[in-house]
């Protein structure tokens, strides 16, 4: 019984220390990780498999070929080149690989070419995805 109580106490200490450590880490800029503030700009969206915008604004999408999607954001949306994350969504079988194939950023705006590659076939395939572009 005493061993179980000691184990429970040790777990409680570790759990609370982990929470405090995470709070310190993510809110302390000296670690290189900074929470977005009100000055941060974020553009995000969900794109369906045919290239339609399901959610989001501030960008346009074209779907020139199977598995290829081009996202454009006009100049003035970001003051500098944003950090971009792409995640496949809405798949019923093996999730495809989302590849940020090309990324252009300059005075005319931001252009992203996303390729969705079948994880079992290795060929391009249409699939919905979500993206986030953020300028800290």
Write the layout of secondary structure elements.
Blueprint: H1 2-27, E1 41-47, E2 53-55, E3 60-65, E4 68-74, E5 83-88, E6 97-106, E7 109-117, E8 129-135
Antiparallel strand pairs: 1-2, 1-8, 3-4, 4-7, 5-8, 6-7
Strand content: 35-45%
Unreliable spans: 8-28
The average pLDDT is 78
- Helix run count: 1
Oligomer: single chain
Total domains? 2
Count all strands and give the number. Answer: 8
Percent helix range: 10-25%
Please tell me what the overall shape is.
elongated
**Could you please say which CATH topology of the largest domain applies here?**
Immunoglobulin-like
Characterize the main sheet: 4 strands, antiparallel
Q: Determine the N-to-C terminus distance.
A: 51 Å
Radius of gyration: 21 Å
Characterization of this structure:
It is a single chain. This protein is α+β, with helices and mostly antiparallel strands and 136 residues long. The chain folds into 2 domains: 2-31; 41-135, Immunoglobulin-like (Sandwich). The chain has one helix at residues 2-27; strands spanning 41-47, 53-55, 60-65, 68-74, 83-88, 97-106, 109-117, 129-135. The protein starts with a helix and ends with a strand.
């Amino acid at each position: 019984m005493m061993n179980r109580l000691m184990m429970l106490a040790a777990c409680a200490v570790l759990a609370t220390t982990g929470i405090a450590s995470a709070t310190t880490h993510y809110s302390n800029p000296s670690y290189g990780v900074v929470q977005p503030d009100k000055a941060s700009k974020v553009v995000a969206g969900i794109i369906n498999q045919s290239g339609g915008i399901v959610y989001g604004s501030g960008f346009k999408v074209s779907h020139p070929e199977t598995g290829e999607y081009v996202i454009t954001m006009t100049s003035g949306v970001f003051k500098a080149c944003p950090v971009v994350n792409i995640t496949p969504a809405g798949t019923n079988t093996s999730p495809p690989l989302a590849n940020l194939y090309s990324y252009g950023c300059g005075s005319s705006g931001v252009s992203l070419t996303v390729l969705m590659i079948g994880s079992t076939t290795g060929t391009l395939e249409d699939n919905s995805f979500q993206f986030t572009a953020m300028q800290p």
